[in-house]
Amino acid sequence: MTVTPMMAQYLEIKAAHPDALLFYRMGDFYEMFFEDAVNAAEALDIALTKRGKHDGADIPMCGVPVHAAEGYLLTLIRKGFRVGVCEQLESPAEAKKRGSKSVVKRDVVRLVTPGTLTEDSLLEARRHNFLAAFVEVRDQAALAWVDISTGAFHVMQTTQTRLGPELARLSPSELIVSEGQIEDLRELVSDFGIPMTDLSRASFDSMSGEKRICDLFSVSALDAYGNFDRAEIAAMGAVIEYLNITQKGKLPLLQTPRQETHRGSVQIDAATRRNLELTQALSGGRAGSLISVIDHTVTAGGGRLLERRLSGPSRQLETIQNRLDAVSYAFDAKQTADTIRDQLRKVPDLDRALSRLSLDRGGPRDLAAIRNGLTEAEHIGTAGLNDAPKLLIAALKDLQGHTALMDLLDEALIAEPPLLTRDGGFIANGYDAELDEARKLRDEGRSVIATMQQDFVSKTGISTLKIKHNNVLGYFIETTSTHAEKMLSAPLNETFIHRQTTANQVRFTTVELSEMETKILNAGNRALEIEKRIYETLRQGILAQAPLINQTARALAELDLAIAMAHLARVENWCKPIVDDSRAFAIEGGRHPVVEKSLRDKGQTFIANDCDLSAEDTANIWLLTGPNMAGKSTFLRQNALIALLAQMGSFVPATSAHIGIVSQLFSRVGASDDLARGRSTFMVEMVETAAILNQADDHALVILDEIGRGTATYDGLSIAWATLEHLHDVNKSRALFATHYHEMTSLSGKLDGVDNATVAVKEWEGEVVFLHEVHKGAADRSYGVQVAQLAGLPETVIARARVVLEALEQGEREGGAAQKTLIDDLPLFSATPPPAPIQTKTSPAVDLLDTIHPDELSPREALNLIYKLKEAAKN
Question: Are residues 726 and 807 in the same domain?
Fold first, then answer.
């Protein structure tokens, strides 16, 4: 069957991009056909129609408006699609020059994937959008990652074993792997919900990768950027190759690659990040996470820097001290810090504006963002930070040096430019004489013609001469037949050219009028073209200064974060921690920042607690006992969070804190299963515990909650017992170990590095009162029945549980078999007695109210009723 030229073009382009939904540009719409249309219509909840036939069947079709495409793109990306944006590369008029039936040239100009987004509407301002690549080359492996919306580019040596923790830290939106490795990594990567894209093995060739990197940064060798091994070069090369594929050769402006090491930051595995809810709550989303409570930054760049620091706290003492000194200075210099903070609020997102400009996806507002950001940076750079620490001094220095670019942009741009270049009107009047002339003709064409008419009247002396316009002749000079003779005679006939004679009028033109007509008719397009040309000049001027602008953006983020952390410390009453190379861990008055805020919102007070795990020679472990709901898990988590906050360079929620560098942080808190991989809750618990025992070193901090609770009592107790001994004898880690196995408290007398601690409770008239206070000592029982009563279990169940518990405890005291006691004396399968009928007691006041109809009462009757009710209540 005959295929139309347009559909043939579509099928050809689609065949080149089989894995992507094709957004095929048709005028003001992106249209999709065949299976793409079916899938897109379902994903976007839009109408599925049809256009023409192919092989005898209707062709499914759907479409979205070009002006609203970004919202649809976001939906498709979040649902796991890749989108090929196919644009018209010429106008229909240009196509017709090749023949009346010629199809407009089209091609894919960009592949939109989760890791290659740049538009603000598709991204979260305070989160990075990383694209990562992992490769194994013989006995080496590396992970490279890039955020093309900010230009950040990083690489590190790693292993497949360590890939999981790094993916948890970075949370990339997309992972590139070699086609030969995708199946080996599928199970690991699926745990994080990260889409994987496979590239050919050639894309990971280190020799080709080195050339790609050198070409990108216009250098002959990589020595100036670091000593990279073959795997690191291969990973970086694969990232660049993928960007070249998706951006169709228009590579983003990337910063020079920064080499990272595992020893540079605290090792935190995926389970620990999830349990501690650092950047995402267990319920999903940012609300309820630690970052949602501590983020007081006022710029997008500062918010992204905070997330990076929180996700990867430093292990380098000098780095930590420099950051703490910066926060401390901002804490003390409140007035100056508040002034800078107010200025920072006006700073736009320089990184993302610069990235869009580099990819030619920007617009006038991105030019204005650069101008406004650099202007505010210049003002902030003049702040009088006397005796400031070196981190702040370096940041202030990096804010300077943009005077020439700022003056250029300030002179060229209006205050509030439009979003799109095609809208025009963003170049200031007076900046370009040619543009001013075009605008005058466009906007004041009538006045220009009127001035020219007045000139002709003066030259000819004919007061009735007029300049008119019609669709046939355009602009022309018209006069009566009487005056026409004068204009046809010398010397005026050298200026005025006869065009047409009618019954009563004669029409003329001049070279000047013809030229002016052309200028007026083309003035609008000419003005827009001039603005586009100026825009491109300004864009190139900005890109030429990109490294300095990136440096300024980093400095602004650094200032914002230091001042934000100081502001947080001030309003929340946090203290500056002492951080050193020791094994100290001494917290006085520690609090959980998220729980504290939640309680404060409810008008309640958080109970602060101390924790001391300071031991130089042996492991120091607190074995924590106490009932559920007493606050054990909160206590465990808050101490882990305090350590993380200190090492990211923040003040901490405590009265005082002394923390020796924590190399690794492990957490086994909470219960969950993994049904997809056939893992029970207990299996997940054991896998996570095994990871801790196999990796934790003597500078690690470990928090464990209820190890062994997922199996039989004696099995669980034995596992918990052996785990604690291993932590003490082998790992020698600082640890908080919460348990309900009270038998384990005897270990404090056998292991030098173990102390007992408990969460205090009181019993009052058969009910348990949680005091949330942690002190040395051991709990004598778990108060499980009381907690069950608080949860609302029926009274019959609570009463039965008390009987069974008493029988079990009696069996243990008498040394007999508790189970036999239950079977013999308390038949478990006997019928549960029906609940006693509820006796309701009424009062005369209630009885009186039952006879009242409020709507029928007069004010006096209502007052009398109150007296009657008061009297009835006495009876």
Answer: no
114 carries a ligand binding annotation: no
Contacts of 720 (CB under 8 A, 6+ apart): 707, 708, 739, 741, 744
> In this structure, is residue 155 part of a structural domain?
yes
Please, what is the angle between helix 546-572 and helix 390-397, to 10°? Answer: 140
Q: Where are the alpha helices (DSSP H) in 181-229?
A: 182-190, 206-217
Q: Alpha-carbon distance 369 to 580, whole Å?
A: 41
pLDDT tens digit sequence for 405-463: 999 999 999 999 998 898 889 999 999 999 998 888 888 787 888 888 999 999 888 98
Is 629 marked as a binding-site residue?
yes
Whether residue 412 is contained in a domain is answered as no
Do 756 and 649 share a structural domain?
Answer: yes
pTM (two decimals): 0.83
**Residue 854 assigned to a binding site:** no
Whether 804 and 783 map to the same domain: the answer is no
Rounded to whole angstroms, the Cα distance separating 470 from 510 reads 16
- 631 marked as part of a ligand binding site: yes
Asked if residue 498 lies in contact with residue 509, where contact means CB atoms within 8 angstroms, the answer is no
User: Annotated binding residue at 121?
Assistant: no
Same domain flag for 636 and 749: yes
131-137 sheet: strands from edge to edge: 196-199, 174-178, 131-137, 140-147, 152-157, 258-260
CATH of the domain at 633: 3.40.50.300
The answer on whether 627 is annotated among ligand-binding residues is yes
How far apart CA 311 and CA 260 sit, in angstroms, is 14
Q: How many domains does the chain have?
A: 6
On whether both 559 and 663 belong to a single domain, the answer is no
Dihedral sign, Cα of residue 14, residue 17, residue 22, residue 28: negative
Would residue 451 count as lying in a domain?
A: no
For 43-60, write each residue's pLDDT tens digit: 999 999 988 888 788 899
Residue 641's alpha-carbon distances to 511, 577, 612, 653, in angstroms, are 81, 13, 15, 9
Q: 87 is in which domain, residue-wise?
A: 5-112
**Token representation of residue 600:** 């404060």
* All residues at 6 or more sequence positions from 681 whose CB lies less than 8 Å from its CB, including other chains: 671, 672, 673, 710
